[in-house]
Amino acid sequence: MTERRADDATREVADWLKCEYMQDHVGEELDGVIANVTAFGFFVRLSDLHIDGLVHISSLANDYYRYDAIGQRLVGESSGQIYRLGDQVKVKVLSVNLNDKQIDFELVGSQRAPRGKGKTAKQRLVEEAKKQARGKGKKAKAMVEPTVRPDGSTEQPKKGKKSKAQKARKSKARANKNKSRGKKK
Fold first, then answer.
1. H or E stretch covering 74
2. What b/e sequence results for 89-99 when a residue is b if at least 16 CB atoms lie within 10 Å of its CB, and e otherwise?
3. Pick the CATH number of 2-110 from 3.30.830.10, 3.30.1700.10, 3.90.105.10, 2.40.50.140
4. CB within 8 A of 40, min separation 6: which ones?
5. DSSP character for 124?
6. Which residues in the chain come in under a pLDDT of 50?
7. Where does the S1 motif domain lie (predicted)?
8. Strand, helix or coil at 29?
9. Distant-in-sequence, close-in-space partners of 14: CB < 8 Å, separation ≥ 6
10. Going edge to edge, which strands form the sheet with 82-84?
């Protein structure tokens, strides 16, 4: 129990020191990476300082942002702007609260461009299904590599004939199937 309290105290002191340091940098623009995405915004870890702060969802551009928990991202409904885990961003230090040990950032820029007028995944899937139905889709070709012997010579596998291993697997599967039928009776 005391070790856990010691860890908590160490974390609190570290958070307080980070906030104390950042008080001198209010108004500065810094580079960072989105380290965590939540329904109320995203946390940015500053690249040089390894200090985290929050960009609140209300400080983002005039858009309604939808939180995608599975994709760890915020998606703008009308603009299509996406902020996801790992994106490089530029933030401005907005405020520092020493009592709550919180640092607030404001987004200045992002390297990810908004979605264009391209096709959605669903549209691409529908088009691919139509191509397959018309027979214009690419057929997959089985890749079988030749067997290389220790002396360096190769042997191309014969088409249509099964290898001994394949025959053994099929025979074993048949035997297991027959055993299971016998147990049901």
1. strand 73-76
2. bebbbbebeee
3. 2.40.50.140
4. 56, 57
5. H
6. 113, 185
7. 27-108
8. strand
9. none
10. 65-68, 73-76, 82-84
